[in-house]
Amino acid sequence: MSGEVILIVEDNEKNRILARDMLESRGYETLETTTGEEGIRLAREHQPALVLLDIHLPGIDGIETFRRLRADPATAAIPVIAVTASAMPDDQAHLKEVGFDRYLSKPINIKLFLEAVKDVIDATG
Fold first, then answer.
1. Residue 118: which region, alpha, beta or left (left: phi > 0; alpha: psi -120 to 50)?
2. Dihedrals φ, ψ of 26, to 5°?
3. How far apart are CA 34 and CA 53, in angstroms?
4. Peptide bond into 73 cis (omega under 30)
5. Which residue, of 67, 79, 98, 112, has the greatest Cβ tally within 10 A?
6. CB 110, CB 87: distance < 8 Å
7. Which residues are paired to 44 by β-bridges?
8. What is the DSSP letter of 32?
9. Measured in whole angstroms, how far is the alpha carbon of residue 84 from the centre of its chain?
10. Beta strand ranges found along the chain (DSSP E)
11. How far is CA 116 from CA 42, 105, 120, in A?
12. Per-position pLDDT tens, the chain of length 125
């Protein structure tokens, strides 16, 4: 089954725990952080199979974090799913334009969340 490492970059503790518990129940390993800066460092260091990236973070936001990940040859190929409470159609279109591999809105739908993770990892693996 899984075993892939997924990096969760989420500043809300409840959302981070929910994501971690769902992923670990499916056999994934997780790394967690609350800031974009630390997410970039962990992505470089651990080369996860996927990054789940909240858009509204303290310090640099998720979009800037994503841009820095893509600009760095060491992390440019790591797929990134945007996870955000901003669920308006314009927000979704903007995230696609920026280049995220997928977009998930909060509150998290467990079934859709796990399907998106599996689809993105399968597409890159």
1. alpha
2. -100, 5
3. 10
4. no
5. 79
6. no
7. none
8. E
9. 10
10. 5-9, 29-33, 50-54, 80-84, 102-105
11. 22, 12, 6
12. 468 999 999 999 999 999 999 999 999 999 999 999 999 999 999 999 999 999 999 999 999 999 999 999 999 999 999 998 876 667 777 788 889 999 898 889 999 999 999 999 999 87
What are the two backbone dihedrals, phi and then psi, of residue 29, each rounded to the nearest 5 degrees?
-95, 150
CB 37 within 8 Å of CB 13: no
Compute the distance between CA of residue 77 and CA of residue 56 in angstroms, rounded to an integer: 22
Token pair of 10 as six digits? 């989420």
Domains of the chain listed by start with CATH number: 5-124 (3.40.50.2300)
CB-CB contact of 31 with 6 (8 Å): yes
Structure-token pair, residue 7: 């990096």
Instruction: Count CA atoms closer than 13 A to 60's CA, side-chain side.
Output: 15
